[in-house]
Amino acid sequence: MCYATYIATTPEKLWEALTSREFTKKYWFGKEVRSDWKEGSTVNFLDKNGETTDQGQVMKSEPYSLLSYTLKCVKDQTDYERMPRVTFELKPMESTVKLTLKHEYLSTGAFQDEGEGFIGINNGWPAILSNLKSFLETGNTLPEIGL
Description:
Elements: E1 2-7, H1 11-19, H2 21-27, E2 32-34, E3 42-46, E4 52-62, E5 66-70, E6 72-73, E7 85-93, E8 96-104, H3 116-138
Antiparallel strand pairs: 1-8, 2-3, 3-4, 4-5, 4-6, 5-7, 7-8
């Protein structure tokens, strides 16, 4: 799956929004993303109660241009051939930044055949990216939509 959006911001501000747990809580609809963002480090996704819901490992971290990590729900017991991976690519374009998000290796497990996981991702990423864009451009997030 691949999504792209254009955000009126700088690569530095967008990078901070992607990697700062204080920012992620605002546009991930309450989820907090924690990591030191060094290659090989753990990425944890915490819900509003502080419980870890998803985990991954940082694969690439090139400040202001590329961030990639594996991502798996902690309840998912699937033995993946290749771990699902999320990659954010930031490309400056004058006064905006093109943000491209790829969520790869979803061909097995809960994501196969447009199952529940696929539907959740397909609805979740557009909402998260829209919320991120609104937050960076206006300082406000979208109304809670129950993700």
